[in-house]
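#onboarding

Welcome to the new folks! Below is a worked example of what a typical request in this channel looks like: someone posts a single protein sequence, and someone else replies with the predicted structure as tokens. Don't worry about understanding the tokens yet, we'll cover that in week two.

Example request:
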Amino acid sequence: MEKMTKSKMVLMTTSRIINIISSDLKSPRSKALLSNLRNSVGRPISENIGSLQIVYENMPEELLGKNFSMTKEECAILTTLQLFAIHQQSNVEPVSERIEGKWNNVGYSLKALRSDGSLSTDQRFNALVTSQTFEELTHHLRQMIKLLKSKKKGVKVDYPALSLDLYNFLRGYDESVRLNWARAYYSYSKEENEKGEIENEQ
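Example response:
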């Protein structure tokens, strides 16, 4: 049997945890897990034990760190779950969904914000994709996800794919991540363009 790569493990672990939480969003356990994940943003590990339980219960041993620093895999998965928890807050339907096709990344989901025609949205996105550090990137991602949550209810994000992109960013493939997000965000869509033309004619 072919050995599973760490990249695949990151994607599958994120997907598994999100599926567990999303299986019953009304349950006290899911609500508590989401709250713990949201509250863990920017706080030390010693204050975030509640958010780490579900992460480490479902994480393959190969991804676990052996020192006082989080591994790239741990960091990518936890960061993605925090973003998911921010997006899921007050939503009764799951906000994570696997996106099929070539644009299966967060840029495709954030593209929905462009329909408002706001220049500031593009400026926010440009700040995101030009981030030089992981901390800067995740800061801008949180702002964009909050904007998506408030302005475009019903738009979902492929969070497992996002975990893989964050992992690749941490591994030094940041240029590839930036390019793929920009392609998806700015890409011309024939269907969307035709829809806009019809609306303008009415």
